[in-house]
Amino acid sequence: MHEASLRVLTERKRDGGELNEADWKSVVESSLRPDADLAPVAALFMACYFRGMTTEETLALTRAMVDSGETLRFSRIQNGVDKHSTGGVGDTTTLLAVPLLAACGEYVPKLSGRALAHTGGTLDKLESIPGFRSTLEPSEFERIVAKVGCAIAAQSSKLVPADKVLYALRDRTGTVPAPGLIAASIVSKKVAGGASRIVYDVKAGAGGFARSVDDARTLALSLLTLTAAFGRQAGVVVSDMSQPLSPAVGTGMEVMLARDLLAGRSAAPRLMRVVRAVVLEGLGGRHSPEDAARAYDRALASGEGLERLRAMVEAQGGEGGALSRLQPVAASRRVAASRDGFVRAIDPVLIGRTARHVVNEAGPFAGVRLLKIVGAEVESGEPVAVVYGGDDVSERAVAAAYEIGAEPSADAPAVYEELALSIESTK
Ligand code: URA
User: Are 315 and 212 in contact (CB under 8 A)?
Assistant: First the structure.
């Protein structure tokens, strides 16, 4: 499609019209040409942001994006479960839910991404482990999942190449937050990843994409409907991101926390509430809720989840015993409470940015450890957090992220909603 026709589509959307399946296919195909002029596509996306997209339009765009590349098809594993988080701060969920799902008997071929803005990325976290490889050929990916139960790999550039081009364009043009574009971007990658059941963890709050629970719910419903339209089962957890989810924020810091939680040596109730919801949604396709809850409790208490994490790390090149030896950098600074009172809020964006900064400066075993979370009573001068590997600027940033007041604030629940949907394919 040449420039003039793309302009016609853009004008139609600008004026409140709809684009059909063939139109979206042309938009995606035109964007992938080596000499593509992306200006009309940027304008079209801005029109989508202001005008919205119908379910049919979002589905058509998702299909065109899936068709822009390969789709993984497994021969040795059946009924694979994948999960996807819309991204947040201290979101250690994948490092726990993936091995726990494997310990419950599921195959988990998990495709992950890297850090974006203030949010963390699972691949960056795992690559803090010496030797760990996240780039796997599809055959090796499947072999590890068949043997260990789970693998976590980078999305190959052969899957949904359109997303790379279109996401970069959205990032440059202020059009990332259009709900239809977000849903198409996420679902196209998960569908191309080949899993039969996909669990989405949609974050609501200042540290995530959807600021309000209502926006998160709208996105959640769109993810469910789109995924089911591809004949895959889908589950959704809407969880809180108004404060960091995990008490450890960083790359290696989060790997160490996951290891210690799976070993029963640490506690992080908010994080584990989300992990539980995600695992139960992942098991939902093949288990009753009671059986799923029993399987989860057993996988955690028996140490089988930790064994699966270790086996996966070793199968992906991590040095034997590397997981046990990880520890934070020695240099640390305590962040003191500015007054007596209650922790009323912890700014997730400020904590996320500070953790990324100290990791960049002092390596993967630097980061932020939150000793007090929202609701905790504190005394002036008492440590509320520790910054590993930081300087006085990062110490001040963490202090500024803490809002301490005389009265406790109402704490948000860790999980707002759990939904599942499985309808016949319309493909
Ligand atoms: N995550 C994605 O993969 N795509 C988006 O558009 C937003 C979040």
Answer: no
Which atom of ligand 1 sits closest to the CA of residue 113? 3
Structure tokens at 112: 């992950």
CA distance 248 to 371: 9
Judge whether 163 counts as a catalytic residue.
Answer: yes
Q: pLDDT (tens digit, 9 = 90+) per residue, 248-268?
A: 999 999 999 999 999 999 999
Per residue in 87-100, pLDDT (tens digit) is 899 999 999 999 99
Question: Is residue 325 annotated as a catalytic residue, yes or no?
Answer: no
CB 22 within 8 A of CB 62: no
pLDDT digits (tens, 9 = 90+) for 220-237: 999 999 999 999 999 999
Task: Indicate the CATH number of 81-323+414-426 among 3.40.50.360, 1.10.760.10, 2.40.50.140, 3.40.1030.10.
Answer: 3.40.1030.10
pLDDT value, residue 422: 53
189 annotated active-site: yes
In the predicted structure, residue 425 carries a pLDDT above the cut 50: no
Q: Cα–chain-centroid distance for residue 408?
A: 30
Residue-level pLDDT at 155: 84
Label residues 82-110 b or e (16+ Cβ within 10 Å = b).
Answer: bbbbbbbbbbbbbbbbbbbbbbbebbbbb
- Shortest-distance Cα residue to atom 2 of ligand 1: 186
Whether 223 contacts 202, CB under 8 Å: yes
**Domain residue ranges in the chain:** 3-52, 81-323+414-426, 330-405
Q: How far is CA 37 from the centre of its chain?
A: 31
Strand 341-346 relative to strand 402-405: parallel, antiparallel, unpaired? antiparallel
Q: Could you list the beta-strand ranges (E) of 45-129.
A: 81-85, 108-112
- The one catalytic residue in 23, 124, 163, 240 is 163
Percent of the chain predicted with pLDDT > 70: 97
The encoded tokens of residue 50 equal 């202001």
CATH of 330-405, one of 3.30.2290.10, 2.30.42.10, 3.30.360.10, 3.90.1170.30: 3.90.1170.30
Its pTM surpasses 0.85: yes
Q: Answer whether residue 2 shows pLDDT above 70.
A: no
